[in-house]
Amino acid sequence: MAVVLGALAAGILGTSLHAQVLYAGETPLPLGALGALVLSAAVAVFAGLWARSVAVSAATGILTYVLLGAFSLDIFSGPLIVTGTDSGLDLPVITAGLIWLFGQSLATVAAVMVTAVALRREARYERETLQAPVLPYGTDPGYRQGPETRS
């Protein structure tokens, strides 16, 4: 369930964000596509950590990529992700669409790596806390009673 909800959220929200282009003078900067990739990776990491599974993180990223593939097809009376035109113009929204579509694979790999590291650290912490001896109160061999106070 986390896989489907995460992929739908990342795909829909990222697609609506990816076409935001900021101009620095004459240079277009596709910051919306980069933001969409960060959002997608964050959603995949959250799903993986919530389910405590690296496979869930990977499945979320892969399903998001499949959803983006459907969004780039001409099935919604025009593609939602523009990856090219017949006119041969190099529009900034095309660059943003390509970054969003093909950058999703890198975002998935990054999310899987972050999830794996976080889960490995959590597992190591749990192993260490289970192995640590818990001594009852007052039985610590290193305990030394302080000086007696006289009234």
Structural class: mainly alpha
**Low-confidence sequence ranges:** none
Determine the number of helices (DSSP H or I, runs of at least 4 residues): 4
How big a fraction of the residues is strand?
under 5%
The major beta sheet can be summarized as: 2 strands, antiparallel
The shape is elongated
Please, what is the average pLDDT?
88
Ends distance: 67 Å
SSE succession: HEEHHH
Strand order of the largest sheet: 1-2
What's the total count of β strands?
Answer: 2
- Indicate the radius of gyration in whole angstroms: 25 Å
**What's the helical proportion of residues?**
55-70%
List the domain count as a whole number: 1
Explain what this protein looks like in three dimensions.
- With 151 residues, the chain is mainly α.
- It has one domain.
- Helix content is 64%, strand content 4%.
- It has four helices and two strands.
- The chain has helices at 2-18, 31-51, 54-71, 92-131, and strands at 22-24, 27-29.
- The protein has a two-stranded antiparallel ribbon with strand order 1-2.
- β1 (22-24) and β2 form a beta hairpin.
- α1 runs antiparallel to α2.
- The longest helix has 40 residues, at 92-131.
- The radius of gyration is 25 Å and the shape is elongated.
- The mean pLDDT is 88.
